[in-house]
Each structure stands twice: as C-alpha cells, then as structure tokens.
C-alpha cells in the first residue's frame, strides 16, 4: 500500500518536471522534479502524522472565534470602529507620500470591488467586463473636462450617470442569458469598450490617452496634495460602504439574495428577477463610474492600458478573495490585493504567476473567501445557472 | 481581392475551428468554459518553436526538413496534451461538485498562470518561427494560395474528419457522447467518467497544439498573449455553431474566419478583434443555442 503511494508521488513529480522541460531546460526540470518530489513527500509525512494536531488547532481556532464573538456582542465593536476611523484619519500626519499613494489606490479599488460585489456577490451575476464601466467613468470625466471644461463636481454626476446608463443598456439584453454566457458577453463588452477607446483616435486620442485632466477642488481650492486626495477618497469609500450596506439590508438587497439562491423560488414569491438584476447591474456600474472619475481625477491621465481584461480579473479576485457577498471581506480583499503586490516589488515579475495559481488554490481550498457571508445566506449556489 | 480574402478567411477559420473543437467538447461534457484552452494553443505555438530550435541544433533540419517539422509538431501535440491533462486534474477535477463559478475562476487562474509562465521563461517579446517555405504558392482563380495556407486548410480538414470518425465510430467516442448526454446514466452503465473527461482534454489540447503550431508557421511570430484573444474567438466560433456540437464548432470556426477576414478587408482592420465579440454578442442575444445546438431547457 505504502509503496504504491510513493510511486504515485514519483510519477507526479516526474510529470511536472517533464512538462516544464521544454521551457526551462533540463537542469531546471530536474530541480523542479526534486523540489516537487520532496515537498509532496513532506506533505504526505505531515498529513500522516499530524492529522490529530490539525484537528486540535482547528478546535482552538473555533474557541477563539467564539471568544471574539463574545467581544463583538459586547458592543465594543462600535468603539472599535471609531478607533479605526480615527486611525485612518490620522494617517496623513505621519505617513510617507508613497504610503498615501498606495492608500489612495486601495480606496479606489475598494469602491470598485464593492460595486462588483453588488453584481457578483449579491445578485450572483458573473460580470467579467466590469472594468468597462470603470473605463467609461474615467473617460467620461476626462472628456467632459478636456472638451467641455467641466469641473470635478459638475462632471461627477454626469459621468456617473453615463456609466450607470451604460450598465443598464448592457444589462437589458445580457440578462436573458444563463450564468456563464452572461460572463462571456460581459467580457466581450469589456473588450469592445477597450478596443473603441484604443481606436477612436479623434475623441479618445487612442493609445496615447488623455492627459492634463483637472483635479478635484473644494471651496474653490484645487486638490493637489496627496493627503487631500486621501481624505476625499476616504469620504467616498465611507459613502460607498454606508450606502451599499443600506441597500443590501433593504428590500432590494434581500430580493437580490433570493434571486441568487433560487431564481424560480423567488419568482413564485412575486419578485421580478429581471428588474432586480437590472438594478444590480446599474447599481454596480454606478460605483464603477465613481471609481473611474476618482481615478482619472487622481492620475490626471487616462489611457486604454489601464482598463484591460486583467484589471477585471483583479477586481473579481478581490471580491472572491474577500468572500462573495461579504462587505468587510471585499474591503479586506481589495486592500490585500493592492498592498501585497506593492510590498513584494522585488519579485514583481512573479506576482501575476502568484495571482493565477492563487486563484486556483483559493477555489480548491477555500471557495467562500476569507469571510463567509453571514449564516442566513451562505452555502447555496453562487452563480445562478 | 474577394477570393484572396476568402482564402485568408478559410485559413483562419480552419485554425479557429480546431481550437473551438476543444471548447465545445469540454463544454459538452463538463458545461465548463475552459478559459485555459487558448493558452494551450499558445503553448503549442511556443513548443513548436522550441522543438524546431532543438532540431536545428541537432542538425536534423538541414538533413531532413519535413521529418523535423513533423517530429516537432508531434512533440508539441504530446506536450500540450500533457498540459491539458494536468490542468484538468489539478484545477478542474477537485471542483467538479462545486458551484459553477468556481471552476470558471479556476480556469481564469490557470490561464493567467500559463501566460505569465511563458512570458517569464520565454520573454515578453515576439518569438520568430523559422521561415522554411518560400512565399510561393499555387494560383487558384488568379489568387495566390501559399503552401502554408494550403497546408493549414488540408490539415485542419483531415483532423476534423478524423475527429468525426473518432466520435462516431469508436468505443471511446461513444462513451464521450454518452457522458455528454447524461453523466450519471453513463457512469451507471460502466463508463469511467474520469477517463472520458481526461481523454476529452487530451484530444482537445492536441487539436489546439496543431492550431498553435500552424498559426506560428503562418504568421511567423508568436507572443505569450496570443492565447487570450484566439481563445475568445474560438469560443465565439463554438457558440456560433452551438456549444457542445462538434460539426457546429467546425462550421462556426470557418464562418468566423470568413467574417473576420471579409470585414477586416472591406470595413476596417483596426477593429479586427472587435468583430468576433460583436458577432458573439449578437448570436447570444438572438439564438443562444447556435446553429446546431440543442435548446437548453431550465430544469426545476
């Protein structure tokens, strides 16, 4: 029995080495073979001898969780939140510019991920072209500003309106499709938007992008310091969290979850799935529009390069890593996926490699993400078929 | 001009059809959009170049060119099939009972991994496929058809015919058809699901490898990012023909190739890649079941 297993490990290691042979040469393949063999052996040993101790650790974690629940129930959570907000507000007083820059980027991605979470997490509609709405928001502001000379606050509602409407327009035909067809159509939409931005030279200036976009201003004062951006984006993040939470716990949010869990049952309860899915799409694109406007106002420059399919996947990864449908999870997911690559700048080349394999591993070992959505609506099918 | 575009379209269409077959076979059996399939095609192109370089170093190319080409094609098929088999085993098999979103995300993960893996090991710049055939060809109806084009059209037609025979006449083909109709029933009558799925991935990947090799030969250049666009286009072809249907994928591929080369020739080549997407969206909206697909009834 044992000998047979060892043979299997040998086979797997040999297989891996062989597949990588043409790309890396014989030496690297041999090293890979040895590494895979050793690690598989190690895992095997560990899993044989420490099964009981893993169980012990798991029970300990559960106990710890219960204790944490106890603290939470004591309403300490409110003061905890206030402490957190005070900390976040005080960051610009001691942080370096570089840190603030990353924080601003994180904020923009949090808004984006929250928006996508509405579509994928709440309503269960897989959208692989979410970046298109981000792009529409960013370009709308850029064009309104550079052609019509509109300022930040007057262009913001128009740009967001355009984005929301475009979400609506895409959703009307697309929502007739089943789960993965919808995913492909949204992906196609994302690519079409990018191709148009790239080729419509007379308006979008093609691959060169649009520069010299005006920054936002408050009370006649133009924002150009990083700390000001930081506060501005913080306000928008707070707004997004607050509003999305309110909507999620409202009648609309519950209808979304009902449709996600069982569309047919929700129809029999009198919910019209098509219109609620439309709301989800439009509401999600609304936030993508806001994030897009903030992005182009912060960068002062937009080009099609920022809105590739990879970006859609990145935002989707944030939502999935944090936990589909979980508000705090998505915030955490966005923060991790922006900050981690920044910290790992030395191995930057490998970060996409890590993202790819990370997605596979996440799906296999923890498909529900870091935070499981609260117990009333987890466990069902995530995307409606 | 028109016949020239038609020949170009037919060449492209043959390639798309070969890739689309992989999508449609996997979808027919697992109902999974195998996002990594386009990367297998890209791997096929790279492996072809790598093995040809290897054979050049061995001196086989100078000695016997056709033998070297055939050998590197076969090696590239073998390795791509190996990749397809491994991908299914690692990334899809553990997720067979999971919600439908999970394998899709996993597939995207594999696709990102393979793209960046090739970029890291082979560089981000274009790779050149050695140029063997002169730009000569034969004249058909006053149109020059290069030997490469002819080769692509013939090889794709032969492979499609062989696949058709495999599906219709052999035991494994019968098993594949049974699994795609009803997995539970098929396993009840003694068909090993895992084996059938593995074989599906192996065949699909082999076809994609041929497509990759031939495209590399046709254009002379490959890049680590070609898999994504080609994959989406082939998927469009599969949907156009009716996903899950094998003759549909063949026809869909050829139609897509013709549409693309005609619209690039007559409308605008800047939006060359957008036509496939627009076509895809239109088909999905008007007739999601495609040309040959069975309409899918939602089960309660």
Quick recap of the structure?
With 385 residues, chain A is an all-alpha fold.
Strand and helix layout:
The complex is a heterodimer of chains A (385) and B (300).
Chain A: H1 2-49, H2 51-94, H3 97-122, H4 130-148, H5 152-174, H6 179-199, H7 201-204, E1 217-218, E2 221-222, H8 226-249, H9 251-261, H10 263-268, H11 273-299, H12 309-322, H13 327-343, H14 351-365
Antiparallel strand pairs in A: 1-2
Helix pairs in contact in A: 3-8, 3-11, 3-12, 3-13, 4-5, 4-6, 4-11, 5-11, 8-11, 9-11, 12-13
Chain B: H1 2-30, H2 37-58, H3 60-63, H4 65-92, H5 101-122, E1 127-128, E2 137-140, E3 143-146, H6 147-169, H7 171-181, H8 183-188, H9 193-219, E4 221-222, H10 226-241, H11 246-266, H12 272-286
Antiparallel strand pairs in B: 1-4, 2-3
Helix pairs in contact in B: 1-6, 1-9, 1-10, 1-11, 2-4, 2-5, 2-9, 2-10, 4-9, 6-7, 6-9, 7-9, 10-11, 10-12, 11-12
Share of residues in strands of chain B: under 5%
Helix content percent band of chain B = over 70%
Shape category of chain A: globular
Mean pLDDT of chain A: 82
Low-confidence stretches of chain B: none
What's the quaternary structure here? heterodimer
Number of helices of chain B: 12
Largest sheet of chain B: 2 strands, antiparallel
Describe the main β-sheet of chain A briefly: 2 strands, antiparallel
Strand order of the largest sheet of chain A: 1-2
Mean pLDDT of chain B: 84
Order of strands across the main sheet of chain B:
1-4
Separation of the first and last Cα atoms of chain B:
53 Å
Low-confidence stretches of chain A: 374-385
- Using the alpha-carbon principal axes, give the shape of chain B: globular
Largest interface: A-B, 52 and 55 residues
Q: Tell me how many strands of chain A there are.
A: 2
Whole-angstrom Rg of chain B: 19 Å
Query: What is the string of SSEs of chain B from the N terminus onward?
Result: HHHHHEEEHHHHEHHH
**Helix/strand structural class of chain B:** mainly alpha
């Amino acid at each position: 029995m044992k000998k047979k297993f060892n043979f299997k490990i040998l086979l797997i290691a040999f297989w891996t080495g062989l597949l990588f042979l043409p790309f890396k040469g014989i030496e690297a393949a041999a090293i890979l073979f040895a590494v895979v063999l050793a690690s598989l052996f190690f895992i095997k040993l560990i899993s044989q001898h420490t099964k009981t101790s893993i169980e012990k650790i798991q029970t300990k974690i559960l106990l710890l969780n219960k204790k944490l629940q106890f603290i939470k129930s004591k309403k300490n959570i409110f003061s905890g939140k206030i402490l957190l907000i005070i900390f976040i507000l005080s960051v610009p007083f001691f942080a370096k510019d570089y840190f603030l820059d990353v924080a601003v980027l994180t904020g923009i991605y949090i808004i984006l991920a929250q928006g996508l979470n509405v579509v994928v997490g709440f309503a269960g509609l897989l959208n692989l072209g979410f970046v298109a709405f981000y792009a529409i928001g960013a370009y709308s502001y850029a064009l309104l500003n550079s052609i019509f000379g509109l300022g930040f606050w007057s262009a913001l509602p128009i740009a967001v309106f355009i984005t929301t409407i475009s979400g609506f327009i895409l959703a009307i035909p697309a929502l007739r499709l089943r789960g993965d067809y919808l995913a492909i159509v949204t992906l196609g939409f994302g690519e079409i938007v990018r191709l148009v931005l790239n080729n419509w030279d007379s308006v979008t200036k093609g691959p060169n992008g649009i520069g010299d976009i005006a920054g936002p201003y408050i009370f006649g004062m133009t924002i150009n310091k990083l700390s000001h951006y930081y506060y501005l984006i913080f306000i928008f993040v707070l707004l997004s969290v607050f509003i999305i939470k309110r909507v999620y716990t409202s009648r609309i949010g519950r209808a979304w979850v009902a449709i996600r869990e069982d569309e047919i049952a929700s129809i029999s309860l009198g919910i019209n799935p098509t219109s609620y899915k439309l709301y989800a799409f439009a509401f999600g694109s609304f936030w993508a529009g806001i994030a897009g406007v903030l992005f182009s106002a912060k960068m002062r420059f937009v080009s099609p390069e920022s809105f590739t399919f990879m970006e859609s996947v990145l935002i989707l990864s944030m939502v999935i890593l944090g936990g589909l449908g979980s508000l705090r999870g998505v915030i955490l997911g966005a923060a991790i996926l922006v900050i981690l690559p920044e910290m790992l700048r030395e191995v930057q080349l490998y970060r996409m490699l890590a993202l790819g394999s990370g997605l596979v591993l996440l799906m296999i070992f923890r498909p529900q993400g870091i935070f499981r959505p609260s117990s009333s609506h987890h466990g069902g099918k995530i995307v409606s078929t | 001009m028109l016949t020239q575009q038609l020949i170009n379209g037919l060449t492209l269409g043959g390639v798309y059809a070969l890739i689309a077959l992989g999508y449609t076979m996997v979808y027919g059996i697992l109902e999974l959009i195998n996002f990594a399939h386009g990367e297998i095609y890209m791997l096929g192109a790279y492996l072809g170049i790598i093995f040809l370089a290897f054979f050049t170093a061995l001196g086989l190319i100078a000695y016997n060119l056709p033998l070297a080409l055939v050998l590197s094609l076969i090696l590239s098929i073998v390795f791509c099939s190996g990749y397809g088999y491994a991908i299914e085993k690692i990334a899809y098999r553990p997720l067979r009972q999971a919600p439908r979103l999970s394998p899709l995300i996993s597939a995207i993960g594999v696709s990102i991994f393979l793209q960046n893996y090739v970029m890291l090991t082979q560089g981000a710049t274009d790779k050149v496929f050695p140029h063997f055939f002169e730009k000569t060809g034969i004249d058909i109806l006053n149109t020059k058809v290069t030997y490469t084009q002819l080769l692509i059209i013939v090889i794709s037609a032969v492979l499609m015919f062989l696949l058709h025979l495999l599906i219709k006449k052999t035991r494994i083909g019968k098993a594949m058809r049974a699994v795609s109709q009803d997995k539970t029933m098929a396993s009840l009558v003694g068909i090993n699901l895992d084996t059938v799925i593995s074989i599906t991935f192996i065949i699909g990947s082999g076809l994609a490898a041929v497509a990759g090799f031939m495209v590399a030969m046709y254009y002379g250049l490959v890049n680590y990012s070609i898999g994504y666009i080609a994959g989406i286009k082939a998927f469009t072809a599969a949907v156009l023909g009716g996903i899950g249907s094998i003759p549909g994928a063949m026809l869909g591929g050829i139609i897509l190739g013709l549409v693309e080369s005609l619209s690039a020739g007559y409308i605008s080549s800047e939006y060359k890649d957008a036509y496939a997407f627009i076509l895809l969206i239109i088909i999905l909206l008007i007739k999601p079941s495609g040309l040959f697909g069975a309409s899918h009834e939602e089960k309660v």
